[in-house]
Each structure stands twice: as C-alpha cells, then as structure tokens.
Amino acid sequence: MDPRTGRSETSRLETFADGVMAIAITLLILEIDVPEAGPGRSLASALADQWPSYAAYAVSFITIGIIWVNHHHLFGVIERTTHAFLVLNVLFLMTIAALPWPTAVVAANIRDEAGRTAAAVAYGLTMTSIAIMFNAVWRYAAAGLRLLPPDVDPSELRRVHRSYLSGPITYAVATLLALWSAWLSMGIFAALAGYWLLPWSSPRIERLRSG
Amino acid sequence: MDPRTGRSETSRLETFADGVMAIAITLLILEIDVPEAGPGRSLASALADQWPSYAAYAVSFITIGIIWVNHHHLFGVIERTTHAFLVLNVLFLMTIAALPWPTAVVAANIRDEAGRTAAAVAYGLTMTSIAIMFNAVWRYAAAGLRLLPPDVDPSELRRVHRSYLSGPITYAVATLLALWSAWLSMGIFAALAGYWLLPWSSPRIERLRSG
Amino acid sequence: MDPRTGRSETSRLETFADGVMAIAITLLILEIDVPEAGPGRSLASALADQWPSYAAYAVSFITIGIIWVNHHHLFGVIERTTHAFLVLNVLFLMTIAALPWPTAVVAANIRDEAGRTAAAVAYGLTMTSIAIMFNAVWRYAAAGLRLLPPDVDPSELRRVHRSYLSGPITYAVATLLALWSAWLSMGIFAALAGYWLLPWSSPRIERLRSG
Amino acid sequence: MDPRTGRSETSRLETFADGVMAIAITLLILEIDVPEAGPGRSLASALADQWPSYAAYAVSFITIGIIWVNHHHLFGVIERTTHAFLVLNVLFLMTIAALPWPTAVVAANIRDEAGRTAAAVAYGLTMTSIAIMFNAVWRYAAAGLRLLPPDVDPSELRRVHRSYLSGPITYAVATLLALWSAWLSMGIFAALAGYWLLPWSSPRIERLRSG
Fold this sequence. Notes:
Four copies of one chain form a homotetramer. By secondary structure, chain A is an all-alpha fold. Chain A is 68% helix and 0% strand. The N terminus of chain A is likely disordered. Chains in contact: A-B, A-D, B-C, C-D. Chains A and B meet through α1, α2 and α3 of A and α1, α4, α5 and α6 of B.
C-alpha cells in the first residue's frame, strides 16, 4: 500500500482495466441492428431473424465478464506493479477491447455459407489472443514471485499455472475446428462461456496465500 | 474491509457495475438520429417528429438511473462477495447493458402499427429480465444472510424482499399488456420510471441494519 | 465518512457521475464524420469543410469539462447524500449525457439556412437544462445546509448561489437569441466555454468552509 | 491527502482522466468496419483488405495506453491540484479523446493516393497536440515545484523535462514528413508506439523523489 495516498499500488491499474473491460462489454450492444417493420415482413420476424446477434452478444458478454472476474481474483494476490507490467496489461486490454468487432463479424456472417468460416476464425483468433495475453500478464507477475507476496505456496502456483494454461490451448483448438465447421467452433465458444459461469470452474487463486 | 488494500471487499465489483451502468445510460443518446433539413421539410418539424426517441431516452435513462440508485443502496448492506455472486452480477449487468437496443427498437417502430407490438414486447422483456436479475442478485446475497451483516432484522428483510419482488411482477404484466396495446404498455413503463423518482418509492434498505 | 468502508458517503455518487461525464465527453468524437477522398474533391478540402464539427466538438467538450470541474468543487463541500439527492443527480446527468446529440445536430445543420435556427435552439435548450439541473443539485444540497457542513459562511453561500444562477440565465438568453441569429447564439456558447476556462471565472466554492 | 475523505487530493482527477482515456481507447474498435461476404468476394479477402484499420487500431491503442502509463507515473509525484491544473487536464483529455477520429480517417484513406497525405497530417496534428498538452500539464505542475513535493532533485527534474520534450518535437517532425511521404510518416508513428513499449524508454519519473 502506498503510505502517501492510502491506496494500494495496483489501484489505478485496476481502475483503468475495469474501465476498459466495462466499456468493451457495454459496447457489444451497439453491434445489434435496430430493424424496422417493412412491407411484407413483420418486425417480430425481423427480430427473430437476428438471433445470431443475440447469441453472439451473450457469449461475448459472458466471456468478458468472466475475464473480469478472473482479473479481479488476480489482483487479490498481485501486490506491486512495474513499467513492464503496466505495458503488458495495456496489450492484454487491447485484445479485450477488440472483441466487439469479431462479435459483429460473426453475427453478420454466421448464416452465410461463404462467410462463416472466416468469421469464426476471426472470432477464435481474438479469443485465443485474449487467453494468451491473460497468461502473459499472470506469468510475468508470478515469475520468481516478482509481483506476488513471498508466502505463496509453490505447488498451488503450479496448479494455477496449469489451470490458466488450459485457456489458450482450448481456444486455439476451437479456432482450428472452425476450418472444419464454423458452427461447431462457435458452439464450443458458447459452451466454454457457460462452463466458466459454474462456481467449480474457478481456479481458486485465493488459495495461493494459504501456503 | 480488506486490511491489505484498505478498501471494502465489494469495492471493485461496485466500480465495475458503476462503469457498466454509467456507460449503458450514456450510450442511450447514440440511438437518437441526427436529422438534416431537406427540401420540403424543416429541421424543426423533423426534430419534433422524433419525439418517441426523446421519450424512450428519458424513460430508459431514468430506469437505469433508479436501478443504479438501488444497487448503490444494496451495497450499503452487502459486505462480502463470492465467485457465484460476481457471476450473478455479470448476468445482471448483461440485461442492463442490453437496454439501449430495445430503446432504439421502440423509438423506431412505436408509430408504425405493424411493428409497435413486437417492439414493446422486446422492450418489456428486457425490463422484466433486469428486474428478475436484480432480485436474483439480492436473494443470493440475502439467503441465510450469506453476504449481509449478522444484525439484520428478519422482518425488515421480508419487507425488502416483497418490495423488490413487485418489480418483475409489474414489468411482466406491463409486457403482457403490450399484446393488447403497445401504447398502454409503454405508458406504464414511463409511469413506473416517474414513480421510482419519488422519495417514498424507495425500499429504505438502510433500515435493515437498525434491527 | 463511512466507518465501514473507509470511503466518504458521496464517493460512489462521484464515481458514477464522473463515469457518465467522462463517457459523454468522449462520445462527442463519434459525431464527427470520417470523409473519404472522392472524384473531384480532395480529402483536405473535405476535412476543411467539416470545421463546424470541430468547433462544436471543442465547445461541447470544454463545457462538459468545466461542468465536471465545478461538480468536483461541489463535492469538496457536500458531505452526505439522500435518496432525493441521488435522484436529482441522475436527472442532472440525463441532461449532460444528451449533449452529444444536439452537438451533432448543430454540426450537421449550422451552414444550412433553413436548419440552423432549430439546431441552435436544440443546442441551447440542452445547455440551459444542464445549467438548471446543476443549480437544482446545488440548491437541494445547500437548502438549510442539508448536505453541507455546519460551518458554512452564509454570505459566501449567497455569493455562490448568485454565481451559479448566472449560468441558466445566460444560457436561456443565448438560446432566445438563436431565433434572431443562430451564429450569434452559437458564438455566445463558444465564448462562454472560453470564459469558464479562465481561472478567475471559478466561483471559489472552497471559500465556503473558511467562514 | 484530504483528511476528510481519506483520499488524495488528485484522486478524482485521476479517476476522470482514467475514465476518458479508457473510453477513448475502447471506442477505437468502433471505427473498424464489419464486412459481409458478397458475390465475387470472400469474407476472408474482405477482412484481409482491411489491414490498415487493424494497424491503425494497434498504433492508436498502444499510444493512448502509453500515455495512460505516463500519466499514471506523473500522478505518483503530483500531490495537489488547482483550478487551472484541472482546466489544463481537460484540454489535454480533449486531444486524447479526439484520436479515434483521425485513426478512422487514416484507415479509410491511407491506400488512396489522393487522400493519404491529408489523412496522415490530420493524424500527426492530433498526436502532436496530445504531446504538447502532456508537456503543458507537466510543466504547469513542475514550475516552481507548484504541485510537486519539496524534495525533488532539480537535475532529475531537468532530465524529465528533456525526456518529455522529445515527444512533441518527434511527432511534429513525423507530421511534416507526411507532406513528403504519408507511409513514412505513419511508419514513424507505429515505430514510436513500439519504442514506448520498451522498458528503457520510460523517463523513470519516480527517481524525482530520491533526490
């Protein structure tokens, strides 16, 4: 804690990261079109036709939300910052802030046979980048307990490493599967978002400190 | 309060929730078109024609604002968080962040006889979802005083439960009424927004602690 | 200050208000078109033609910025909140969050003789509403020293009242002038934004406490 | 530190500045178009054709991110605020909040021979304005140690002055070069963004206090 301001050293980084994640998550809604009733087509059916937009909104919203929850847990154990750590977080946030765009690309193209593969790949690459950068932020902080408290349990640390590492691997595999079936790939992203919502999917990072 | 950071345990959740609600409320203005004067139509009449957009802006803005005030009161008594509680809040915020979209759908379609029913139903379903998720957040926190202080008065707790429960019921009824009259339904949403502004509509959640 | 959280009672209101003002001020840029070079027109001249958009951006940005500075000063003396005060702040923020829209309406119509009066009136009405709501927030807090510390100097309080009251009066007059000349009206809004930037234009609300 | 609120005097300014920078950085993604597959053109090639948008997104994101990191370091030594300092920060934020616009102008025009010079100049002028205002904020705070602690080392202060001053000079030169080659100019902006990411590019402002 900074004795001059009474705030923890990571406080302003958390505020900035929360801001970027809160904005990216809220901008997702802007990508959903506002249809108008026209001759020969009711508004109800126009709204129903947009279901991929709603599904993409929910999957991306939950994914960013879960990343925020995990970032929140991370900063329960990270105690300090360095210039390089701030820079790494900026690059991490760059991948999250990009998510509204592939979300819209998928929603606009998933029902078109010619476009759905490229759209799912763009979505998957963004998701994989987010997962890689999350691991980079964590590994930098954990290496040699650089930004962690000294009382961390090494075996718990290895468990958390493994748990986080499953993210980029799973997302990379789901992205590759898009080349075979875009629907399957997007289904996996949706299933993963649902899975992270479950309490037992949490890596329980707070256990690090009971070592 | 977290002795390491000097901040309450719920502080970062409140910051994130405030961020999402502040952004959703401010994005509402982007849904109002910017008309230009054209041949045979003055800008003044084009601006006047857009009145449903202004009305929808005001109703949605006040609704999110009131939800923010109530969320603020809630976290005056909620003292802790759990992983599941963070996840519930993410799902609650997902419904609030969606509101700019049905607001625009209503503004674009309310004067069109073929579209107004579907638009009002979309608006009502979003409002009802917000109210249901608000209750879910509250009930999770209150169940067995899970996240509340131990000195809560049980009879006051039942009073707050009843007060919050009136939200989803009222909004669900107003949504169903849209099938009969979209104007009536939207009028009820506007009247409810006005009612929540009144000081005596507040559930006075702070009384919980004087038990 | 709240002994439980270690934060002042107005802290979360300030965070929410800062969020809405920061978002409204940053959304202003979205209203400026992105021109492309076309046949017979260079990008340089297309960019130059858009000067009303840049001017409107600067005037609205500075106006919201100055309101933020004043809101900041206000909460240097306001110590408590009530439900009604939170509601008043929500209505105040509703007028600020609306400003990107009349800003875009003015930028799109100021060079069109048929549209500029209506555009300037829309802009002026929004500015006047902001100024009225700012006074409402302040007067509610100050009435009977409801939310102020007890050691406020009554003559200083009257001075601050007069200083803030000049806002809605000036803006209302500038709005009325738009019926005679939209350019004059917009020039006054620009001049006022410039004037508020000057250090001696500040109402020095911190003097309230040296009474 | 303010004894009444337990927060540092600059806390609310930092929150507001963080908000504006977080929003500006996150709005950048809205400027990237969402292509749809059409007859005779695959989505994959449409996505690939948009590479200037991705490059402009990355350069602007990293630039704002680095400015945020530096602003963060600045407020590690700035201890107080004045009305004029708040106003200077508002003007500084006005230049940062404008960046999504020239970013989109460059992305839309960089491959068009007729437009790329004007686009790169618009981008460069915005970058130069940001760098000038950053220096203005810093110089105001440092002049006569107005807002700095009294134990600052004068020779370190001169070193920081020189380090920050290189920003506007470099950006002004890169802007002028756009008149000769827009690609070269944009390449320099990209290279600078990459350079600031390196740990040794930091002006190490925290050394000021070890004087």
